[in-house]
């Protein structure tokens, strides 16, 4: 993919949440009306698709920022351990625990599904 171009798979995580999936199908129904009709207004679908990409991008950005903070904290901790004569390899043990924490943080950031379009 060229730089700056997102695939449809980018929003799959966001669409995988039950409420968002329901809103996806509602947007498709609003545009298709039960069958393909090219003269129908596509704005409800476009509004949904752009908002879904925006929300997923915000989620990825939060996760990225959290990960940067985490690794910076781990690097500081490794520095403290090294200054005390401990092996710096311990930071990798902490990183394993941190990935579990990151998963929990990602789940908390998603929160319960809600309709961002009403």
Q: Care to describe what's here?
A:
It is built from 4 helices and no strands. It is rod-shaped. The chain is 69% helix and 0% strand. The protein has one domain (10-110). It has helices at 12-15, 18-32, 43-83, 90-110. By secondary structure, it is mainly alpha-helical. The longest helix has 41 residues, at 43-83.
Q: Which tags fit this structure?
A:
118 residues; mainly alpha; 4 helices; rod-shaped
Short description:
With 118 residues, this protein is mostly helical. It has one domain.
> What structural class is derived from the secondary structure elements?
mainly alpha
Separation of termini?
33 Å
- The average pLDDT value, as a whole number, equals 74
The H-and-E topology, N to C, reads as HHHH
Count of β-strands: 0
Helix percent reads 55-70%
Overall form: rod-shaped
Largest sheet: none
Strand content: under 5%
List unreliable stretches of 5+ residues: 114-118
Which radius of gyration do the C-alpha atoms yield? 21 Å
- Number of helical segments with 4 or more residues: 4
Integer count of domains = 1
Strand-helix topology:
Layout: H1 12-15, H2 18-32, H3 43-83, H4 90-110
């Amino acid at each position: 993919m060229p730089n700056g171009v997102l695939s449809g798979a980018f929003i799959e995580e966001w669409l995988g949440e039950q409420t968002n999936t329901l809103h996806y199908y509602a947007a498709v129904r609003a545009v298709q009306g039960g069958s393909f009709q090219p003269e129908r207004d596509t704005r409800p679908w476009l509004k949904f698709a752009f908002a879904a990409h925006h929300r997923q991008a915000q989620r990825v950005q939060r996760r990225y920022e959290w990960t940067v903070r985490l690794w910076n904290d781990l690097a500081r901790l490794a520095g403290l351990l090294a200054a005390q004569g401990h092996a710096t390899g311990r930071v990798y043990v902490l990183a394993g625990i941190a990935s579990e924490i990151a998963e929990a943080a990602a789940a908390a950031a998603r929160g319960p599904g809600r309709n961002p379009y009403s």
